[in-house]
Prior knowledge:
The chain has no helices and eleven strands. By secondary structure, the chain is mostly beta strands. Strands 2, 4, 5, 6, 9, 10 and 11 form a seven-stranded mixed beta sheet that branches. It has a four-stranded antiparallel beta sheet with strand order 1-3-8-7, with no helix packed on it. It is globular. The model has no long low-confidence stretch (mean pLDDT about 95).
Amino acid sequence: xxxxxxxxxxxxxxxxxxRLSCAASGSIFSIYDMGWYRQAPGKQRELVAAVTSGGSTxxxxxxxxxxxxxxDNAKNTVYLQMNSLKPEDTAVxxxxxxxxxFGVRYDYWGQGTQVTVSS
Length: 119
């Protein structure tokens, strides 16, 4: 079991920056692949960025060059640095921890943090 708590959301003007944090507890953080997802009103949840247990990262095309995911295994925390924010980035952002064990995928989710980009 993994417990995830997100923080860092809020209201920001277009072009601004925010850094989201996701603190994990309850299990060995370093063995999990971590990701940030978002869900806007009326839309499906989508992957924003992910970092594997080995440190490889990938970012959705819509955020490449603006967002950066990173992890600090010593602090059991994953971050999402968001720069040059746009109104279309407005959504609830969720942290995810995932692990494949004996052919079964285990996923854990945080409660979400609201990001609103508006002038």
